[in-house]
Amino acid sequence: MSAQPSAATNKLLLVIVAILLPPLAVGLKRGIGGSLILNIILTIIFYLPGLIHALLVVL
């Protein structure tokens, strides 16, 4: 049995992080760039658009 986490486990953890801190999930998935800046702005304006964007990026 390998100690490597599966892709499904990584995706599940990213979804949990996206629900709690949307910009962090986008940053972990895509790195620093346009998507992260957009998500930070969306999350500051209102939490729900930032959450939706983060879930779209992660999934």
Automatic annotation (TrEMBL):
The chain crosses the membrane at residues 37-58. This is YqaE/Pmp3 family membrane protein. It holds the Pfam family Pmp3. It is found in: Membrane. Belongs to the UPF0057 (PMP3) family. Keywords: Membrane, Transmembrane, Transmembrane helix. It comes from the Bacteria. Its main location: membrane.
